[in-house]
Amino acid sequence: MKRIDVALGERSYPILIEAGLLDRAGAELARFARGGRLIVISEETVDAAVGGRFRAGLASAGLAAETIVLPPGEGTKSWTQLAALVDRLLALGVERSDHVVALGGGVIGDLVGFAAAIAKRGCGFVQVPTTLLSQVDSSVGGKTAINTPAGKNLVGAFHQPALVLIDPSALDTLPPRELRAGYAEVVKYGLIDDADFFAWCETHGADLLAGDDGARVHAIAHSVAAKARIVGEDERETSGRRALLNLGHTFGHALEAETGFSDRLLHGEAVAIGMLLAFRFSESEGLCPPGAAARIAAHYRAVGLADHPRKAGITGPASRLVAHMTHDKKMAGGKLPFLLAHGIGQTYLDRDVDLGRVETFLTRVLAEA
Length: 369
Ligand SMILES: NC(=O)c1ccc[n+]([C@@H]2O[C@H](COP(=O)([O-])OP(=O)(O)OC[C@H]3O[C@@H](n4cnc5c(N)ncnc54)[C@H](O)[C@@H]3O)[C@@H](O)[C@H]2O)c1
Ligand SMILES: [Zn+2]
What we know:
Layout: E1 2-6, E2 13-17, H1 25-35, E3 38-43, H2 44-59, E4 66-70, H3 79-91, E5 99-104, H4 106-118, E6 124-129, H5 132-138, E7 143-148, E8 151-158, E9 163-166, H6 176-193, H7 195-210, H8 213-233, H9 249-258, H10 267-284, H11 292-303, H12 318-326, E10 335-343, E11 346-354, H13 355-367
Parallel strand pairs: 2-9, 3-4, 3-5, 5-6, 6-9
Antiparallel strand pairs: 1-2, 7-8, 10-11
Helix pairs in contact: 1-2, 3-4, 5-6, 5-8, 6-7, 6-10, 7-8, 9-10, 9-12, 10-11, 12-13
Residues 43, 45-46, 49-50, 72, 74, 77, 104-108, 110, 130-131, 133-134, 137-138, 141, 143, 152-153, 170, 173-174, 178, 267 line the site of nicotinamide-adenine-dinucleotide.
């Protein structure tokens, strides 16, 4: 079993990674069941896929848990579902010493984490992520949130879990498109500051997507260790270090907004194209020697990720994409902070990017055949 620790003083916690961990969850959760109760919260699709295995895993250690199953989908991260969930937790008599277990992807992790942050002013919380995106990104770091009419993830809290249990075999039932979208966030860690890991992705990414256990464990452990390190340095995104995790997300957000945050473009798919655009923009500004973007695009093609906004059905105009980027962001004189790159594994935060130049760049990109 691989163990990675998130070092946050008294809020430190371990992340355990092993194929088959779902079936042995009881052994890992027993210590929480001694001082309080476990309440498992999942959603219908996840419950059908892995709920039985997880409950059997608890039962084999003699643990019992209430289970609450919510509807699947991004719409569940809402005020309505949050209120209903907190009311149910309170009706169950949840105490601060109890642990709420989020069994699911990023939607369940974000919603349940937020409910755990506010019920009784904060009760215990365990993440059992079941998508690649949640295993390498959202389950670690303590960001929780819901969506509101004003936008995505604008209401939430920092609430660190007490434990994260990652079972790569949970990915066996994940639709291939979701798996590939989550893989974009794996590639992200290489592009941010780890050229060797990007090279590993070039060699082994296809194996990971084909379900190779060794590749999955390696990629998840490496990604989680990178995120744990960054979160340990900048828990609340105040120093700018944690902002590096948003590589590709400003361009990507514009693409997602362009599709109305619909299934036409999954978050990870948008981030993949967004990272490529960040590299291409860096090259066109002379900040990054030519070649990096072409290498990234070649890897995307090798694993089946789109390497151009047009392949995701985005045609512009560029002015509207730029408008999406600036929507509800503080702007100083037509400038926006952007994550740019000097090379693969050499990204940095540029606080002063001229949006006119971004628009010109995007106009050129969108005119490509
Ligand atoms: N808190 C953070 O730091 C953070 C970081 C990144 C993303 N997020 C949030 O995460 C969410 C996206 O997460 P996601 O991509 O995991 O979405 P998700 O939870 O909606 O899961 C994606 C799809 O896979 C299904 N699914 C999940 N596990 C499965 C399994 N094992 N087998 C079969 N199907 C399964 C779900 O039902 C859903 O249809 C977004 O709301 C995003 O805002 C949060
Ligand atoms: Zn992301």
